[in-house]
Amino acid sequence: MGLNELTIHAAHELLVKREISSTELTKTCLDRIEEIDDDLKAFVSVTKEKALKQALVVDKQKSFENETLAGIPMQLKDLICTKGVRTTCSSRMLENFIPPYNATVTDRLFDRGAVLLGKGNMDEFAMGSSTENSAFFTTRNPWNLGCVPGGSSGGSAAAVSARETFYSLGSDTGGSIRQPASLCGVVALKPTYGLVSRYGLIAFASSLDQIGPLTRDVKDSAIVMNGIAGYDPRDSTSIKGTCPDYTASLGKGLEDLKFGVPKEYFTEGTEPGVKKALNAAIKVLEGLGAHLEECSLPSTKYALACYYIIAPSECSANLARYDGVKYGHSQRLAEDMWESMELTRKEGFGAEVKRRIMLGTYALSSGYYDAYYLKAQRVRTIIRSEMNDAFQKYDALITPTSPTVAFNLGAKTADPVQMYLSDICTIPANISGIPSISIPCGFDRGLPIGMQIMGPVLSEVELLNIAFSYEQATDWHNIGPSL
């Protein structure tokens, strides 16, 4: 086993014993990136010199005993700001943007001695479900290079799955870390809205966006959450209060817990192999002492339509700042500022981003605001209320993460609605602001399948324990691609 195949916690134990160094870990990951990333395309940029310098500093100055993330190489999705390192959102609009500051999560990881390998490819401005909307190149699935890795955090999921990095931070607006994690066979946690600071996250839809970790296993996810969660006064939506140790309750067991299995999540488009894997996973959970029963969340069928009013509306407001005046791409060969702005946005944004800006602008326009945006917000309230009612009866909800396994490159690019349906199982958690975790639970046609576990607000400790208990009873997380 190569050093890059270790989990965070396994690498940490070796670092504590001084049997390996952070420099060795970093070089092994950089070698892996050099070896396979020309085919995989998981990285927009690789920060080789920075990574080796950070690793050397950690080896000389850091005590590994009390800081599990010290010396561990990682990747950041390319919409998380990094001072002095290009942050592009995989868009021509920000192709040469170098932030003058770090995002809060970047600072928190650097303070703990994390080593930055580079920035992960993504759908432009996090708008997409396949990473085919990147302005630079398409990331491929490490299990089958002819398939998509999911999106929008496809570069993050592919890099973790292919053992290029120990973990990555992505963003989840409607499933953008959980869906690619499912398609690439890794673990992803979308935290409660406001639990992880969004300061320095380039915004798509501010009431939905949340940063979360993609890791090899559940314990690694808990370790990363210990590093990034917590109140930040620079984020007005940040939740005040202290955070627990997310690793403390792992292995607590599932006896006497009650889980609901909402029938609405097994839609007509759910592939037979996904249903079969979920049914097998449910039997494992029952064998661990949990009680499971079918339940109903009838408003779930409106979640997708609700999301595709709210998210584009917020997107149209957030992306108005890219006008060619302050920063980013600017077309100066124009007769006046209005033509310059029009050409800047025409050249800087890709087709999917333009589509969502137009959808959102229409929904917010005079005469249509009440009919679309206001109505979507009311539906959002109903969905959130339905979720809260379900958690009065159940400790968690069990669903597929994605209705399908990874699909072929180009299979859905001509049909935006079919692409949007890829997030049908993940969107309700973002609309409700609740935490949700995706873990590997099987394979179909040689491609990974993910199980989603949703819980009430601030139930991350409980969700991680449920996921960990299932993971320890199965072997899916130990199987990696042969890329």
Task: Describe the secondary structure blueprint for this structure.
Elements: H1 8-16, H2 22-40, E1 43-46, H3 48-61, E2 73-77, H4 104-111, E3 115-120, H5 154-161, E4 167-171, H6 178-184, E5 187-190, E6 211-215, H7 218-228, E7 258-262, H8 272-287, E8 291-295, H9 303-318, H10 337-348, H11 351-364, H12 369-393, E9 396-400, H13 416-420, H14 427-432, E10 436-444, E11 447-454, H15 460-473
Parallel strand pairs: 2-3, 2-4, 7-8, 7-9
Antiparallel strand pairs: 1-3, 4-6, 5-6, 5-10, 9-11, 10-11
In short:
The chain is α/β, with parallel strands linked by helices and 483 residues long. Helices cover 38% and strands 13% of the residues. It has 15 helices and eleven strands.
Describe the structure.
- Helix 5 runs parallel beside helix 6, helix 7 (218-228) runs antiparallel to helix 15 and helix 9 crosses helix 11 (351-364).
- The chain has a domain at 3-253 and 438-478: Amidase signature (AS) enzymes (Alpha-Beta Complex).
- The longest helix is centred in the C-terminal third of the chain and has 25 residues, at 369-393.
- It has an eleven-stranded mixed beta sheet, sandwiched between helices.
- It is an alpha/beta fold and 483 residues long.
- The model has no long low-confidence stretch (mean pLDDT 96).
- The protein contains 15 helices and eleven strands.
